[in-house]
Amino acid sequence: MDMHVRQDESLDLFVNSTLQFERALSWVDGVKEGIIDFLINPKRTIHVRFPVHMDDGSIKTFHGFRVLHSDVRGPGKGGIRYHPNVSEAEVAALAAFMTWKTAVVDIPYGGGKGGVICDPKNLSRDELRRITRRFVAELGVNIGPHTDIPAPDVYTSAETMAWIYDTEVRMHPGANNLAVVAGKPLEIGGSLGRDEATARGSWSATEQLLKRNAVPGLTSRQGARVAVPGYGNAGSVAACLFHDAGAVIVAVSDSRGGIANEEGLDPRAVLAHKEETGTVVGFPGALMIGSGDVLTIDCDILIPAALECQVTTVNAPDVKAKLVVEAANGPLTAAADETLRYKGVVVLPDILANAGGVVVSYFEWVQNLEYQKWKLDKVERLLNQKMCDAVDETVDRFDELVQRHEQGENKDLPGPTLRDAALVSAITRIASVVLQRDIWP
Ligand code: NAD
């Protein structure tokens, strides 16, 4: 894909998120440059290298990171990723996303992210367990219920979180360690509704956005034609929720290919097929298409739910959706984002659209600290409220920015977007806390 994109277009998440941040800054009023400089860069990056016994008797050294991007509004919060391509820049970008996300939905956290360079597909469960325990031990007091709270991310799971919790208990016996990590199994302090939270948040946010008439030509999920590139956890649950709300799922994909049916796919039957065969490809009665074709298929709502930088200047001109709901982090390059804006495609940005996961992680933390177990309907009700409030605030901010633009502010720039609005709200909220707390000493 790299060689096809525009020469000045990067596929690096860090580069793209920085470009988007800089664009939003033109709308930020009255925040001193020094504070912006403090907010944009990570507060702390920890590198650890540690040895692990491998199953074949050898010893291998692993390299891991934990970036605490910001703890201005509360402890750091963000997942731990196991992947061969994990890098400091990627982890830093994802940690920054978490800072903006927690501020947009107004939960009392900052942003963090971690990762270990490893290939989980070629590691045994025992090797992964030893890597996890040693990584957590190396991070020591830099993670904790009130300092920086990990969660699952790519190739880490509830089981990994259980190992993290248990390691923390070994290091800090006699304390309530449950809140050190989110996304745990239900039996050890996990929250009901966590599995579905990201997609449910995207679903609630979309409904509220449509209610606010923020998408020209689209007023309801009912009857909307929806395409979901990336039929994993977030994507498949989103497809089921949209289908249940009366939308028609016209196409979905995974890394092996895509499937389409103008009459609509049954998302649960597709999921059962994927569970049985390992892919959505070959689903009976559907047209087989390329996975990239799903991004540009004729639809009303596109929900990219795979990896970053899937929509570039190569395919953005062909996107036909009226609304893009970024269930994935950074699915559009900054240049593709610009192209969609010129086309009049509304983008519900990742830092709002996929914040449902961290909102329910926060609910898990509250339950853990209070030794409570909430019922599912309470989790879903509070999640829906959080998402609707955040959408309302973002749309109000967007209207304000549009008005300022019409009055001549930033005349040389194209009009603002919902992403600009969400980032401006986040930056303003965090900057105000920096000043109210005062800069010490
Ligand atoms: P997942 O691994 O369950 O699903 C990803 C899916 O994308 C898989 O089905 C994979 O086959 C597919 N995929 C990979 N490459 C593809 C390609 N080129 N074209 C089409 N499909 C492709 O992961 P997930 O947990 O659902 O996360 C997906 C995205 O959502 C990530 O960007 C993640 O950071 C973001 N996200 C997830 C959560 C969460 O709680 N799961 C929360 C916030 C953000």
Describe the overall structure:
This protein has 441 residues and is of the alpha/beta class. Helices cover 42% and strands 16% of the residues. The protein is built from 13 helices and 12 strands. It has helices at 13-25, 33-40, 88-104, 125-139, 158-171, 197-211, 233-244, 267-277, 334-343, 350-353, 356-369, 376-406, 418-437, and strands spanning 44-53, 59-70, 76-83, 111-117, 148-152, 225-229, 248-254, 257-260, 287-289, 301-302, 323-325, 346-348. It has a 7-stranded mixed sheet, with helices on both faces. Strands 1-2-4-3-5 form a 5-stranded mixed sheet. A hairpin with a 5-residue loop joins strand 1 (44-53) and strand 2. Bound molecules: nicotinamide-adenine-dinucleotide. Nicotinamide-adenine-dinucleotide binds at residues 198, 229-235, 253-255, 291, 305-307, 327-329, 354, 357.
